[in-house]
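Incident log, support desk, overnight shift.

02:14 A customer reports that sequence design results differ from what the structure should imply. Their input is reproduced verbatim below. On-call engineer (initials T.W.) acknowledged and began investigating.
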């Protein structure tokens, strides 16, 4: 079976592929190091907002109240949309 590439071309292709592999490996390594460092900085920043004890209970209750209020507002708006559509015309009272 004949060779597809000459020995010189084969060495050149091997060097290019080895260079590509080395660049890819270093890029993955540096991306991992950057992610690790970014997470450490984020974690250090978030440690400022640590709340414990009775304050945590207050914050948790306030958070739940905000979540339920937002959900309730969305539900009320969803239920009111048909009424908004019915009354969007100027002469909606004359239709009744």
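02:41 Re-run completed on a clean worker. Output:
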């Amino acid at each position: 079976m004949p060779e597809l590439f000459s020995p010189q071309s084969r060495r050149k292709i091997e060097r290019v592929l080895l260079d590509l592999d080395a660049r890819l490996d270093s890029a993955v390594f540096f991306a991992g190091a950057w992610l690790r460092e970014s997470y450490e900085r984020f974690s250090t920043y978030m440690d400022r907002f640590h709340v414990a004890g009775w304050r945590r209970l207050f914050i948790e209750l306030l958070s739940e109240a905000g979540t339920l209020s937002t959900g309730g507002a969305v539900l009320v708006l969803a239920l009111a949309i048909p009424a908004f559509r019915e009354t969007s015309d100027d002469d909606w009272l004359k239709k009744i």
